[in-house]
Write a structure and sequence with these properties.
CATH architecture: 3-Layer(aba) Sandwich
Protein name: Dihydrofolate reductase
Number of strands: 10
Shape: globular
CATH superfamily: Dihydrofolate Reductase, subunit A
Number of helices: 4
Structural class: alpha/beta
CATH class: Alpha Beta
InterPro entries: DHFR-like_dom_sf, RibDG_C
Organism: Cellulomonas humilata
Radius of gyration: 16 Å
């Protein structure tokens, strides 16, 4: 069964983006970009919603450093608002139920895994459905309290996280990976 990795890029205070700031808050470094291009999950299909698709395809079309890496990667977009043909290469549109589609995709023995990028609502829905195997957060060294947009964890259930990996890039960007467990109440009760 294919593994599903939820992959978030975040400010330290848990925002997915910030008004007026470039992608990666303009803080991406060469070590992080090299890892992104060589990531062992690089050949896994990327799952995303319409908002992330619009943003990331715009970054790629505009030549933003690092976003071009995603162009040739297989991508699946879950949306009822987008229509074919999609302009970003290697992208397939699914307009049906994302949970059922991902549940089916995970049974494909030819897929090494699936991963997300951004797509806060999609990720929350897949986590609540029990489909997420690993949760990776890359935190950039910035607090965007005044300009931050898209608080990542709003609306999430309580989730216990068992750390399975961590790494620092360029002396400033922190990656942490966890196995998630949805909690029915605070631990120890």
């Amino acid at each position: 069964m294919a593994e599903l990795l939820v992959d978030f890029i975040t400010s330290l205070d848990g925002y997915a983006s910030a008004e007026g700031w470039p992608g990666w808050w303009g803080l991406e470094g060469p070590e992080y970009l090299a890892w992104l291009g060589e990531s062992p999950e690089g050949d896994w299909p990327i799952l995303m919603g319409a908002t992330t698709y619009r943003l990331m395809s715009q970054f790629a079309a505009g030549g933003e450093e690092g976003a071009d890496v995603l162009t040739d990667m297989p991508k699946v977009v879950f949306s009822s608002t987008l229509t074919e043909p999609l302009t970003w290469a290697s992208t397939r549109l699914v307009d049906g139920d994302a949970v059922e589609a991902v549940r089916f995709m995970k049974t494909d023995d030819d897929l090494p895994g699936l991963r997300t990028i951004g797509s806060l609502t999609l990720c929350r829905t897949l986590l609540e459905a029990g489909l997420v195997d690993r949760f990776r957060v890359v935190m950039f060294p910035v607090i965007t309290g005044r300009t931050g947009a898209e608080r990542i964890y709003d609306g999430y259930p309580d989730v216990g996280l068992e750390m399975v990996d961590s790494r620092t890039f360029d002396g400033k960007i922190q990656l942490v990976e966890y196995v998630p467990t949805i909690l029915t109440g605070p631990p120890g009760q």
